[in-house]
Design brief:
single chain; 219 residues; alpha+beta; ten-stranded antiparallel beta sheet; two-stranded antiparallel sheet; 12 strands; Snake_toxin-like_sf
Length: 219
């Protein structure tokens, strides 16, 4: 019996409990960096995530940065998304690391691509409601090959804010159902739809215009 107990004690000493990752976890909706005391992650969360988002409202000349740092998984890592809804433009970048408290450095937003890719989407934006009316065709740029429609509620940084966006976006924003840009508990996605971008039907338009001119000439 004593030999059995001795063996169990030795085995217990050899078993070292696993330790989970610790990361910065904070949100600042008005600046490009934030800091916090390290937080212990869940065992399924293998990476420290930093997501920086830049939103530009050309109508009011507003250019705002926001940062989210959290525990996460590899699927949240290393994505750059772009959204274009006419007056509203957004670009996000996520960066990850997998050592304790490693998501402390400041990250920077890359320059947004401005070259048209030949696609377009109907667009509109509302910063105060979950609905907006499609008002214009917006030309998609760079890797924006999807048309998106989504409604999101922002629950951090002051009073609750409702937002609606229709416009062009990159595929990875669709693949994550908006999570790549609106990450964490500060955002509640109400609805999210995605479809392929549209190419202008120039040939059909010219044919219709030619037919109309012939009708006018011979009527």
């Amino acid at each position: 019996m004593r030999a059995v107990l001795t063996g169990l004690c030795i085995l217990s000493a050899l078993i070292v409990p696993g330790t989970s990752l610790s990361c910065q976890e904070c949100t600042d909706l008005q600046h490009n960096n934030c800091t916090s005391a390290p937080k212990q992650c869940q065992s399924s969360q293998t990476h420290c995530v930093s997501i920086l988002r830049q939103t530009v409202l050309s109508a009011g000349g507003s250019n705002m940065m926001s940062i989210i740092k959290s525990c996460g998984t590899k699927k949240d890592c290393d994505m750059t998304t772009s959204t274009n809804a006419g007056n509203f433009q957004m670009i996000t970048i996520s960066r990850c690391c997998n050592t304790d408290n490693c998501n402390t450095p400041q990250i920077n937003i890359p320059a947004k691509e401005i070259k048209s890719n030949g696609l377009y989407c109907m667009s509109c934006y509302s910063g105060s409601s979950h609905t907006c009316d499609k008002k214009e065709n917006t030309t998609c740029v760079g890797g924006e090959d999807r048309c998106i429609q989504y409604d999101v509620t922002v629950t951090a940084g002051g009073p609750e804010t409702k937002i609606a966006v229709h416009g062009c976006a990159t595929k990875n924003l669709c693949d994550t159902q908006g999570r790549a840009a609106y990450y964490g508990s500060s955002f509640e996605m109400k609805s999210f739809q995605c479809s392929s971008g549209t190419r202008p039907q120039l040939g059909l338009f010219l044919s219709a215009l030619t037919g109309l001119l012939f009708m006018k000439l011979f009527s």
